[in-house]
Design goal:
mainly alpha, homodimer, Arc Repressor Mutant, subunit A, binds FE2/S2 (inorganic) cluster, DNA-binding
DNA sequence: ATAATTTAAGATAAGAAAGTCTGATTATGA
DNA sequence: TCATAATCAGACTTTCTTATCTTAAATTAT
């Protein structure tokens, strides 16, 4: 099966965009996120913990605790999340799996792929998640 | 780690483009492919077996046996290989991992991603592997 | 015929990713 | 204070992917 981002990363992206919808400093619990997004509870817990450790989220224990963004939504992009979970390998790897990807040693589709790869990068950085939250219409988020 | 195609699929793509360089009906052994491309011998064997089963390659046992393309290189695209190994899921899945990806139920980057996805598809179908073989300069292939 | 070479096939192992479970810790609010 | 609700942390299990090993079957050339 072909994939772009790991499942962990997909979950993280969904969770962060969901958190972006909570405008005031409100905390959101793992329970709510897991339920609304259909993500396994404990697995999501690990991921949020990870994002907290990486500085993207802030957590709070106890009743009415949970997670919120560590900074204004306009300062976070999807790329920050991908970077934190999957790393930035996809921005420089050969799509055919050759060990060295560069203009010096291009595979048959290197030029084309380099362009698409940049396009994916742009997709991830050109909108902050405040904008993304505003445009979101997924039923999962309601 | 983010990836586009499975490692199996990458190996398959590399092997098929390598086979495309053998113009006359010549057979190529797993040994040669594994050595030149740096792919684990037995693992590659399985993959080539699979591609044979799927009809992309023809195999021959015994001394001077091996594998060759089952049809003229101009009739095969990278997409055929991806389709055979990883399937076509990537042409229709949401990049953020949402279960339903469509214009009816778009995520925040659906429009952008749909375009890039088409670009990847084009990259895979717009050249046949005869053309690809001709343009290839990877040292692995020499 | 027979020895050598090659793919076919299946079992198994090793590793990574995904998911689960349990108990500890921390904070809230009655 | 004390029960409750939440994250934190670690071990564990399951599943999938990748890789290895071994034997069988087929083909070729001697
Ligand atoms: S070498 Fe293949 S994409 Fe760059
Ligand atoms: S819904 Fe996300 S890419 Fe289509």
């Amino acid at each position: 099966m072909s994939i772009i981002f790991s499942r962990q990363c997909e979950y993280a992206l969904q969770a962060v965009t969901y958190l972006a919808l909570k405008t005031n400093g409100e905390m959101t619990s793992i329970k709510e996120l897991a339920k609304k997004l259909g993500i396994p509870y404990h697995f999501l817990g690990k991921i949020l913990q990870d994002l907290t450790y990486k500085g993207l989220l802030v957590s709070q224990k106890g009743p009415s605790g949970g997670f919120r963004l560590a900074m204004p939504a306009k300062d976070i992009t999807l790329f920050h999340v991908v970077e934190a979970i999957d790393g930035v390998g996809f921005t420089k790897n050969c799509v055919l799996g050759f060990p060295d990807c560069s203009g010096q040693n291009p595979c048959a589709v290197h030029e084309k792929w380099a362009g698409l790869r940049d396009g994916i990068y742009s997709m991830l950085v050109n909108k902050n998640i405040a904008q993304i939250a505003k445009e979101t219409r997924k039923p999962e988020y309601v």
